[in-house]
UniProtKB/TrEMBL annotation:
UniProt keyword tRNA-binding, yes or no: no
Record domain Dynein heavy chain AAA lid: where: 627-762
Keywords: Coiled coil
Dynein heavy chain ATP-binding dynein motor region domain ranges (all copies): 9-230
Keyword Lyase part of the UniProt annotation: no
Dynein heavy chain C-terminal domain mapped to chain residues: 824-1062
Name listed for the protein in its UniProt record: Putative dynein heavy chain
Source species: Trypanosoma rangeli
One BP annotation, GO: microtubule-based movement
GO cellular component, as recorded: dynein complex
Coiled-coil zones: 171-198
Length: 1065
């Protein structure tokens, strides 16, 4: 360890004054191992250089990327220098012999292998490794050879740094007094240390009797007097320091909030690799906020206004670098940390879904015997609420504090809340209720009207941060003009977005063609790009590098070059475009300004993009008929792409329809006759070769087939008798300018779902999905979501409620489960299915029992958890179901509800195994089955054995009771109350109708279904088919639901993506 005088000396050399930095400095200088210093702000390297220079230590600085690195290393070893290696990304092979001290004796000398040479070893040789990467991960073999020293910023250190910035601006005389006091105090302490050393030296050098040594006694008295005066001076200095700190601490709340905002911004790194923001840019914003203030001079009000102003600046600065879908996430995360009183932590955890397992255990009435959630805690689920709200309601009422809030909501007032559910903007009426806090409103909207959560969050952010809009108003030109030569501008682009033309126009307007250079990367242009970088930096020109994501290996070299190059000309600008990538260099992101460029959504923008590709020269050589066909193709292509915004309703998954597909289709259509189009061939190529090859779902294939047949025909594209949408026909012209003008005039900026042939309430489903996305991302910021692996005791404490949840759930493994054997083939197929289902469920229970037994051992301290066990325990602590469990059984994401469903399924299968199967004995609930498709296949075998029909001739028909499936075959009744229908409504009589704009995104079936296997001779084809999936993501099809309707409604059901699914949560 080091003395206080050493620490004081280091501080004067530039070492940060916090305790962590001082401990790091001791480790760097005194540790036997080679230090690997994580130094994102370059504070440590600057201090080390100053420290060694003051102590006359011969040092040399190099980079592992330097061509002469091996030679520099060799000389440092040979002459015993101290080598500082910067920009380290890993341990280079040449360093291993040095780090391991693999010394060889050759006579009186010792040598070490450096590359291909054996170099004389000098004991004075030292090496220190420095990296700016906070995400650097070394393999175990390399990590054991170095001592990691982390100089990353801490909250307390940043708070003190910001406080110094404030004082320097607001009360510079206080900062000057503080510096003088600290200097005086340090000098006094150094003098006191010297007196102590002198005293020890005098005592050590004295001879004879100490009491008779008059010179020694005089010297001791002199030391005592000086020490007394120094001590008194230190006490006075300390008193003055306390008075000064009181004056400084008036501004500490602002500094504390500033530090809080920085760490809230840093949490964004968990969402997206591209969301890394540097500390220097943050401090520049802080200083800018101080300089821009011109309000009240009263300190208290000034601090409040400055704090809010800084939060606003940070929000806009960060938002320009975020995707639009993530701005609300950041805004709410910022508010939750910035206004903790408005969002109490316990209620916030309930809202984002991380506190479920740590709250009270589920009550006995949380799940009824048939699996329907009807109560939660002491609050009854309201009758006016949609069934999709049950899971969230139970989660809320399971928390004691949240349950108390629910009692204040007066949910029993059915008349009031029923009207509220039908309002187009229900958040507005909630905001007028003074009895509801913001957190109350957030929970209510999230639970009962999640489709309005997006709008309500927008309202909250604007209100609390006092903003006019969430959309940053800064243009690209302003960003470039106000930028710095030392800060590159990274444009993060999404698919379909290309800012190249806009950047080129700005550059030509601002600096002119002669001072603007653009290079498209990805084709071997990296050497030229590096040459142009140095030239433009020296001359003050603009350099535009496109598609950096295509050369990420070179991006690391660019990052090192930017860090090492001298300060560029003030007029220099480096502009980079890249798509998001998980391996983009972090340091380059932190040292740059970032702006996201996203393609505007909608049919209008999509069509305009197509006609940017098909320029005037392209259309001039086409006949009017060909031009009309191409417009129909552009419309068709836009339709396919824009339906992806409504996954899984528009398409079951996000298919990669691209500009390549459009070009291929255009080439095909242009090869047909100029006057006559072979529509059969054209439709076949579009449907089967160009677009259809990407589809992976039979329902989507039928949708594509219908869209192709509706658009690509003479009536629509040649004679223009049939409209594309709402009376809009294909423009009968081949003039490029006229077509573009037609698009601009006839298409809206924002699309209604109907333009994509989707139900009017499709937007509601999309917003509900986005609400889930918001909550999942906010949950990723939660401390419970990232339990510290080193906090073992805290982890064990949090596990206790999880173990209690398992103990009270009644899911003990059953020891009497009889496995299905080959001899069971002669049994009733349904009985065999029930036995195999029970066997699988019992296996899941046994697996969970083993997991909870291991967790119990962890709590008792008899087992060290594995990485997988720790990961699962962390998920359970947050109330979420681990991914491995979901692989075993799909179900709710809430752990209490998932376990309740598992118990329900196992208990139901045990009852089915005991009783003989009879199709008419009782209605079956598909939710009770782990494999509902297998249940229906077992019914198929049962039908074959009973009716003697051929297996291959049977076809499954499922329809509402009283529909087409009645009176034929051997069928079973399926309960409709666990099946949700999306995009349409099905009444108690089995009559289907299209959903309206105010309809819920999905509704429970109000009638039961009859499923029966019938021969193809008995099948009735005069119906529409609605697919039923295992979950809302539509990953696996169970069967098709047949409903009677006319052909027009059947077509709308197909194009509208109408489907049903089992609703777990």
């Amino acid at each position: 360890m080091r003395s206080e005088s050493d620490l004081l000396q280091w501080k004067s050399e530039g070492l940060p004054r916090d305790d962590l930095s001082q401990e790091n400095a001791i480790a760097m200088l005194d540790a036997a191992q080679t230090p690997l210093v994580v130094d994102p702000a370059n504070q440590a390297i600057e201090w080390v250089k100053t420290h060694f220079r003051n102590n006359n230590v011969v040092t040399e600085i190099t980079s592992v990327h330097d061509e002469r690195f091996a030679h520099t290393l060799e000389l440092a070893v040979r002459f015993g220098k101290t080598l500082l290696v910067v920009d380290v990304d890993g341990i280079e092979p040449i360093l291993y012999p040095l780090l391991r001290r693999e010394l060889l004796s050759t006579g009186a000398k010792r040598v070490v292998q450096v590359g291909s040479k054996q170099v004389d070893w000098q004991d004075t040789f030292r090496i220190m490794l420095f990296t700016r990467r906070t995400d650097l991960a070394l393999p175990p073999g390399a990590a054991a050879l170095v001592l990691e020293v982390n100089f990353s910023v801490t909250r307390f250190g940043l708070e003190n740094q910001l406080l110094g910035v404030i004082i320097q601006h607001e009360r510079p005389e206080l900062e000057q007094q503080r510096v003088e006091l600290l200097k005086r105090e340090e000098n006094l302490k150094l003098e006191l240390g010297k007196l102590e050393d002198r005293l020890l030296n005098d005592l050590a050098s004295s001879h004879g009797n100490l009491l008779e040594n008059a010179a020694l006694i005089g010297a001791l008295n002199d030391v005592k007097m000086q020490a007394s005066s120094i001590t008194e001076a230190l006490q006075q200095s300390h008193s003055l320091q306390m008075e000064l700190d009181e004056k400084r601490n008036v501004y500490r709340p602002f500094a504390g909030k500033g530090a809080t905002i920085f760490f809230l911004v840093r949490d964004l790194e968990k969402m997206n690799r591209m969301y890394h923001f540097g500390l220097s840019d943050f401090i520049d914003l802080f200083v800018e906020c101080l300089h821009a203030y011109s309000g009240d001079s009263d300190v208290e009000s000034k601090i409040k206004l400055l704090t809010l102003s800084f939060a606003q600046k940070c929000f806009f600065h960060v938002s320009v670098g975020l995707l639009k879908s993530d701005r609300l996430v950041f805004g709410m995360h910022l508010l939750q940390g910035f206004f903790p009183d408005e969002f109490p932590p316990s209620l916030w955890n309930v809202f984002i879904g991380v506190a479920a397992a740590t709250t009270s255990t589920p009550t006995t009435n949380a799940t009824s015997s048939n699996g329907e959630v009807t109560h939660g805690g002491n609050a009854e689920f309201p009758t006016w609420a949609p069934a999709t709200s049950q899971t969230k309601f139970v989660t809320i009422t399971a928390d004691e504090l949240a349950a108390g809030q629910v009692q204040k909501w007066q949910l029993g007032d059915s008349e009031r809340w029923s009207k509220w559910m039908l309002e187009s903007s229900p958040e507005e009426s909630l905001a007028k209720d003074a009895s509801l806090t913001l957190m109350d409103q957030l929970l209510i909207i999230s639970t009962f009207r999640p489709d309005r959560l997006f709008d309500f969050m927008h309202y909250i952010i604007v209100k609390l941060l006092k903003l006019d809009t969430l959309v940053p108003v800064t243009s690209l030109e302003e960003t470039l003009s106000c930028g710095k030569a030392t800060r590159p501008l990274i444009l993060i682009t999404s698919r379909g977005a290309d800012p190249s033309l806009e950047i080129q126009d700005i550059a030509l307007r601002v600096v002119g063609k002669g001072r603007f250079t653009q290079i498209a990367l990805g084709g071997g242009q990296t050497e030229d790009a590096m040459l142009q970088l140095h030239r433009c930096a020296a001359q003050g020109d603009w350099l535009f590098l496109k598609n950096l994501h295509l050369v990420l290996d070179w991006a690391l070299i660019l990052e090192k070059e930017l860090c090492a190059m001298p300060i560029p000309n003030a007029g220099f600008r480096l502009i980079i475009t890249t798509e998001p990538h998980d391996f983009f260099p972090v340091v380059l992101l932190r040292m740059s300004s970032k702006v996201t460029i996203e393609a505007p959504p909608g049919m209008k923008q999509n069509l305009l993009q197509s006609y940017t590709t098909w320029d005037e020269a392209f259309l001039q050589g086409k006949t009017k008929t060909t031009s009309q066909v191409l417009f129909g193709l552009a419309w068709f292509h836009a339709l396919l792409q824009e339906r992806r915004s409504y996954v899984p309703q528009g398409w079951v998954k996000f298919y990669e329809f691209s500009s390549t597909d459009l070009k291929s289709a255009a080439d095909v259509l242009c090869t047909f006759s100029r006057d006559k189009v072979d529509w059969t061939t054209a439709r076949g190529l579009l449907q089967d070769c160009i677009y259809g090859g990407r589809l992976e779902n039979s329902h989507d294939e039928r949708v594509l087939e219908l869209l192709v047949s509706r658009i690509f025909n003479d009536n629509t594209l040649v004679r223009c008798q049939q409209s594309l949408y709402d009376g809009m026909h294909v423009p009968a012209t081949n003039v490029h300018r006229a077509v573009v003008q037609f698009i601009r005039e006839h298409l809206p900026d924002a699309d209604a779902p109907s333009i994509l042939s989707l139900p009017d309430n499709a937007d509601r489903a999309v917003k509900e999905q986005f609400a889930v996305y918001l909550r999942e991302n906010l949950r990723s910021f939660s401390h419970l979501a990232h339990v510290n692996a080193s906090a073992t005791e805290a982890w064990r404490t949090l596990l206790t409620p999880v173990l209690e949840l398992w103990a009270t759930n009644g899911l003990e493994p059953e020891g009497s489960v009889v496995p299905v054997s080959p001899g069971d083939n002669n049994k009733n197929p349904m009985t065999v299915f029930f036995m195999s289902e029970l066997e699988l469920l019992s296996g899941i229970v046994s697996s969970l029992a083993a997991t909870f037994a291991d967790l119990c051992c962890v709590v008792e301290g008899t087992l060290i958890p594995s990485l997988e066990l720790r990961r699962e325990g962390t998920e359970l602590i947050g109330g979420r179901v681990p991914d491995r469990w979901l692989d075993l059984m799909d179900g709710p994401k809430d752990v209490k509800l998932w376990l309740a469903l598992l118990r329900r399924r196992r208990d139901t299968m045990m009852e089915y195994v005991k009783l003989p199967f009879s199709p008419s004995s009782t209605p079956f609930d598909l939710m009770d089955f782990l494999r509902p498709q297998t249940f229906l296949n077992a019914l198929r075998l049962y039908t074959v054995r009973t009716s003697n029909d051929s297996l291959v001739e049977l076809r499954l028909v499922a329809a509402p009771v009283g529909g087409v499936a009645d009176g034929v075959g051997i069928g079973v009744i399926l309960k409709g109350k666990s099946i949700h229908l999306q995009g349409a409504l099905l009444d108690a009589h089995g009559v289907v109708s299209l959903a309206s704009a105010c309809s819920p995104s999905s509704t429970l079936l109000k009638c039961d279904l009859r499923a029966v296997w019938v021969s193809t001779r008995q099948a009735n084809d005069m119906v529409a088919s609605i697919p039923i999936y295992t979950n809302a993501e539509r990953t696996t099809t169970i069967m098709d639901l047949s409903v009677r309707c006319d052909a027009d409604v059947a077509e709308k059901l197909l194009l509208g993506g109408v489907a049903a699914f089992l609703m777990y949560a």
